[in-house]
């Protein structure tokens, strides 16, 4: 704990005389930030000491650190996913996120209402199969010529619907396209906004 590194003490190397018959192998357990969380120790009689014990304890400590990191990353991912869902559902317009294969990864409540579907069953399904959008939308994905404020028709469970759509690419930290965001707004809503900003 003091040194912050693996160490093995044998016999008289222990300060306390009662531990002189023992060999103790210890390794620190560190958090993601390098902060010391604790240590793991394997103790046994010096007479049965094995040269690989310290390596075994060090490997065990590293395994514990790895599992703790995985747990933290999983919890962080769930927290971010929950936050993303809350943000999506708080947006007044319809929002659909798709991956590069045009598979729906997220759809907010408003978009689900506008297209007459339940959000959960649609997630993971192909956009084209679920909503049969006009070719202009599919062409935008194929050519990567994204647009703003174009009227697009959809054939969905509640019949044919038309919405003003915008398509924006989603890129990773390297700038590679990993999908797109489709926003949907009712035509009268867009006209109302235009009137409010620019007058009749």
Keywords:
rod-shaped; three-stranded antiparallel sheet; 200 residues; 8 strands; five-stranded antiparallel sheet; single chain; 6 helices; alpha+beta
Task: Itemize the secondary structure elements and their pairings.
Elements: E1 7-10, E2 22-30, E3 36-45, H1 53-90, E4 94-98, E5 104-107, H2 109-115, H3 119-122, H4 127-131, H5 135-143, E6 150-156, E7 159-171, E8 177-185, H6 187-198
Antiparallel strand pairs: 1-2, 2-3, 4-5, 4-8, 6-7, 7-8
Largest sheet: 5 strands, antiparallel
**Ends apart, CA distance between termini:** 74 Å
Mean pLDDT: 87
> How would you describe the shape?
rod-shaped
Low-confidence residue ranges? none
Helix content: 25-40%
What is the total tally of β strands? 8
Q: Strand pairing plus helix content: what structural class?
A: alpha+beta
Q: What string gives the helices and strands in order?
A: EEEHEEHHHHEEEH
Distinct helical segment count: 6
Strand-residue proportion? 25-35%
Question: Reading side by side through the largest sheet, how are the strands ordered?
Answer: 5-4-8-7-6
How big is the Rg?
29 Å
Summarize the structure.
The protein has 200 residues and is of the alpha+beta class. The chain has six helices and eight strands, in the order E-E-E-H-E-E-H-H-H-H-E-E-E-H.
Model description:
Helix content is 38%, strand content 30%. The chain has helices at residues 53-90, 109-115, 119-122, 127-131, 135-143, 187-198, and strands spanning 7-10, 22-30, 36-45, 94-98, 104-107, 150-156, 159-171, 177-185. It is α+β, with helices and mostly antiparallel strands and 200 residues long. The strands form two sheets. It has a five-stranded antiparallel sheet with strand order 5-4-8-7-6. Strands 1-2-3 form a three-stranded antiparallel sheet, covered by helices on one side.
């Amino acid at each position: 704990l003091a040194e912050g590194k693996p160490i093995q003490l044998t016999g008289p190397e222990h300060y306390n005389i009662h531990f002189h018959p023992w060999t103790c192998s210890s390794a620190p357990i560190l958090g993601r930030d390098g902060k010391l969380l604790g240590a793991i120790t394997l103790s046994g009689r010096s007479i049965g000491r094995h040269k690989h014990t310290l390596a075994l304890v060090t490997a065990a400590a590293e395994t514990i650190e790895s599992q703790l990191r995985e747990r933290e990353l999983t919890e962080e991912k769930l927290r971010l996913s929950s936050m993303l869902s809350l943000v999506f559902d708080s947006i007044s317009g319809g929002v659909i996120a798709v991956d590069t294969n045009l598979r729906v990864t997220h759809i907010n409540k408003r978009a689900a209402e506008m297209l007459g579907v339940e959000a959960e069953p649609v997630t993971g399904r192909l956009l084209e199969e679920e909503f049969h959008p006009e070719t202009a939308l599919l062409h935008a994905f194929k050519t990567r010529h994204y647009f703003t404020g174009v009227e697009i028709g959809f054939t969905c469970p509640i019949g044919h619907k038309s919405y003003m759509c915008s398509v924006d690419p989603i890129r990773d930290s390297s700038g590679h396209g990993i999908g797109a965001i489709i926003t949907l707004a009712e035509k009268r809503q867009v006209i109302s906004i235009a009137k409010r900003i620019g007058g009749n």
